[in-house]
Specification:
CATH class of the largest domain: Alpha Beta
Structural class: alpha/beta
CATH superfamily of the largest domain: Glucose-6-phosphate isomerase like protein, domain 1
Helix content: 40-55%
Oligomer: single chain
CATH architecture of the largest domain: 3-Layer(aba) Sandwich
Number of strands: 5
Distance between the termini: 34 Å
Largest sheet: 5 strands, parallel
Length: 150
């Protein structure tokens, strides 16, 4: 059994509440990051009538899969393409009406930087979500969303 704390809560309950407070504070702090770049990203997506292609590698790829699934389930045509596979033909279906969202904490992932010229050649717009606004991926993007963690 979980021991009871001085407040009458079990350790598990106290820990769960602490984690939720930390997460709630982190979500509340995101408001300060929403500005011109966010607005630009929204305008890019709304101006295009194609699909949203989400890409990334590693943990960023896992997050990208969830983002693509969420967009698709809310009515935005979207799918995930792994960045390592994208350079080997999977981006051939991109049209100028599409938007590519590339996720990378470092903004320097070789797999993503390799596909940037391919995305641009196809005429699609690029939105980068990175933890480093001065990264190569962020600089190449039409809009950058700060995904840095504190």
């Amino acid at each position: 059994m979980d021991p009871i704390s001085a407040s009458g809560e079990s350790r598990a309950v106290a820990l769960a509440r602490r984690v939720l407070r930390i997460e709630a504070d982190a979500v509340a702090a995101l408001g300060a990051r929403i500005g011109e770049e966010f607005e630009r990203a929204v305008e890019i997506i709304l101006a295009r009538h194609g699909r949203v292609i989400v890409t990334g590698v590693g943990k960023s790829g896992h997050i990208g899969r969830k983002l693509a699934a969420t967009l698709a389930s809310t009515g935005t045509p979207a799918y995930f393409v792994h960045a390592a596979e994208a350079a080997h033909g999977d981006l051939g279906m991109i049209t100028p009406e599409d938007v590519v969202i590339a996720l990378s904490n470092s903004g320097s992932s070789e797999e993503l930087l390799t596909i940037v010229p391919l995305v641009k050649r196809q005429g699609a717009r690029l939105i980068a979500m990175t933890g480093k606004p001065d990264s190569p991926l962020a600089r190449e993007a039409d809009a950058h969303l700060d995904a840095g963690v504190a």
